Batch of 2 targets.
Target 1
Amino acid sequence: MTFVLGVETSCDDTSVAVVENGNRLVANHVSGQLDAHRRFGGIVPEGASRKHLELLLPLLDDVLHLAGIDITQIDGYAATAGPGLTGSLLMGMCCAKVLALVYDRPFIGVNHLEGHLFAPRLEQPDIQTPFVSLLVSGGHTSLYAVKEWGHYRLLGKTRDDAAGEAYDKVAKYLGLGWPGGPIIDEMAQEGNSDRFFFRGGLEEEASCDFSFSGIKTAVVRTFKNLSAREQKDTALLHDLAASFQEAVIRTLVKKTWHALLLTGYKQVVVGGGVAANRALRERIKKKGENEGYRIFFPSLSLCTDNAAMIAACGDFHLSRGERSPLTLEPDPRLPLGPTHTAFSPFH
Ligand code: KG4
Ligand code: ZN
């Protein structure tokens, strides 16, 4: 495939991108809906799909303009087919399918999680398999053994909240705003992470499974036990944010290293919104460097949801001759399978 156009609408970000030859990012536009959802303190699914509908066509025009190509030059279309919010997924899939139909090009439905794995390839095309992948976002926290592109073995996942979800819930409870990840990341920079101690869920268990709801509850309980004056003490809140973040990061690092031990792999690829976290990036990179592992993080704009990674992943499957039927439906719980071949016509 030469030019693949990707569409991502699995949650609240609307994004359209064009990728050339699988790993050259030609144009990528992401239009977040944070302002629209902020006043509700979270994502409102119905509102998200309406917003996707509003944003998709102008984004498509912008991206083609930025790429400097005509739509007839697009060789294939890829859209996120799951996991995600059904109504949101429907918008992006519908858009890509209609374009594929009108311009007589192939269409492929892409697994959002597999898309995240492809994000670092857009900047470091030399990433070789095998590697351990830590996918850590608002909806997912899991570790995969990636034997080769297209072969994924789930090593472990969260048994309750995703890490990003814990960030968002803690921030909401403490009245810090939404989404919580970037806010707590910022506050933690100035906080003392030794002030409070929070035990990470399943931290001591020799497994690749995670649990974040216990840390979240412990932070909320600590906050509740503060006096009204303490609850308004900025320095104390920074310390609380830093201590919470420390427990999350310690758990993520421990489990990732457990996955390295299990697989014997020497590389780690991190993806998902929480991969934008400065302390997490620093900690994993430093530990990897000291112990001889290669660590890959996408740049910040490719950590969070974007269509470039969907186009890159779509190109991989389309180039292998895989196609999805135009009758393909969104699957809100779509798993990342062991031998992943996108979507066969019989899916
Ligand atoms: O991958 P993503 O854009 O959407 C999902 O698929 O969930 O991730 C969004 C999540 C949110 O929970 C947000 O709070 C978190 O990623 N996040 C962060 C940071 N930036 C975004 N968490 C920690 N530190 C950050 N800097
Ligand atoms: Zn995501």
Note: Residues 343-347 have pLDDT under 50 and may be disordered.
Target 2
Amino acid sequence: MPRSNDAVAGMLQEYSELLAISGRAPFKVRAYEKAARTVAGHPAEIAGMDAKALEKIPNVGSHIARKVREFLDTGSVTELVDLRSRVPEGLRTLLTVPGLGPKRAHQVYEELGITSIEGLLQALHGHVLRELRGWGAKSEENLAESLRDAHSAGGRVQLAFALGLATQLLDSISRIPQVRRAAYAGSLRRMRDTVGDIDLLVAAQDSEPIMTAVVGLPLVARVLVHGPTRTSVITTTGMQVDVRVVDPSVWGAALMYFTGSKAHNIQVRELAGRRGMKLSEYGLFDIETGRLVAAETEEVVYAELGMPWIPPTLREGGGEVEAACNEKLPEVLELNDIRGDLHTHTDLTDGVATLEDMVAAAKARGYEYYAITDHAPLLYMQRMTTAKALAQRQRIRELERRTGIQLLHGTELNIQPDGSLDWDDEFLSTFDIVVASVHSQFRQSRDEMTARVLRAIEHPCVNVIGHPTARLIGTRAPIDIDLDAIFCAAARTGTALEINASPDRLDLSGDLVRRARHFRVRFAVSTDAHAVPHLDNMRFGVATAQRGWASPTEIINAYPLDELNPFLAKQRHGAPP
Ligand code: DGT
Ligand code: CA
Ligand code: CA
Ligand code: ZN
């Protein structure tokens, strides 16, 4: 997993944003932005490359290569640090305003002297922004809307971002000599789709040296609390991290407590009470004798309470405690149940990697099968044509012979506002798998939207509805649609609903998966990968399926190919390929 690529891409992206907000030439801004995207999607780990090898990466010239090398060697870039210090703090916070963008942030700063989010809101509500060059009432409304959407995410961050940050911190913390164990807990361990703050748990005899080391970590920007059992810091990314140090002997009880959720903890504690015991972060105790019953591992604590260990993704207080006590916990989907990815792109449309690179990566993951589902002609900017699709099919068949992995030639259709699709039925029936998704016109009425998606579900060639609610976490609300009608029709017609594993989508969400399961819907957990590293997002999709209590029997890409194929056959007319 090329982690260094993500870090470098982040650095280049920040650089481009700082250039933009400083009012530098647009071509320079774009160069860094393009380099960031290419690096993020580059299939090989770039950490070990020298400047010359770096320059061979598309969109990476000598200047950028030098900065990347400096970043990899020293962990920072002098010119970036310099640029950061020259952009006022208030102006930098404008960069975090969704829907504003660096160019406009620079504009409101220069022309109106706005240096804070409050100032921006004032100008917005006073209808001052619409008077600016290049704005107008429409831009003003759009900004207001982005702000409303973001506010509903409540200052939380996406799961993948929190996981990346937690992993980096744990990496540093594990190097502190006195540390016996360290792990993340809280909503991150439960894999909620957004995370408020990161909770880290550390096992050590003595907390003092740990906390001292933690507040000194380079990622720490500000210390909120520096105590012996709990330390809270704000990282340079703006995210809060709570660190607790416990004695190794109570690791299990503490991990259980700080994993939560609060609702789960309350239910488990009540259960303990009914059995004459008391549960806290220090362990499970017999109330009468005060004797410690269990604390060392989560397994023994749950076992003493009369339950099997409950996967963290289920710990939301949604009936899992009762189910566990009655031996009714689901056998949830695990990452190694996944036999293939059913929604992926290549550079034939908007992916950044070649067909060959994507397939090689899929094979390296040990997948039994793999579907290529590039966009279809109605998404005009992708310039897909029938001829290109057929040529791709040819390449796929050859590649299949060479590599031995079963390849499905698919496509991702665009569900038009009236529910019609790309291509005619005859051509559609020649694909091995068809995904259909809403990619535009998100604001139809509920009735129109429901009819639109139902028509796609009823189509005999459509196997999967991609990212069914079209939400983008923190930026776009879900479409307004009668989901029960969708679930009912999907189950009846043998159309799977996607659990899109991309961290900005996680669509369907865990809650919706759980609701859909009552209708006996089948699901496809897919990454929608546009680059090789995106294939790793499968873990977020699996976690989302778990949060919906889904078992492998309900997930079509956990089926072996000879069970998947009859599902994909649906009710197609026309000759199969
Ligand atoms: P977040 O940070 O908003 O994404 O959500 P969490 O679940 O990580 O919540 P957080 O960070 O406030 O607390 C971490 C865990 O600590 C939480 O999941 C359960 C436990 N916890 C915190 N406060 C309480 C409480 O008042 N009662 C109980 N029983 N547990 C608590
Ligand atoms: Ca938390
Ligand atoms: Ca916390
Ligand atoms: Zn896609």
Note: Residues 3-21 form the longest helix (19 residues).
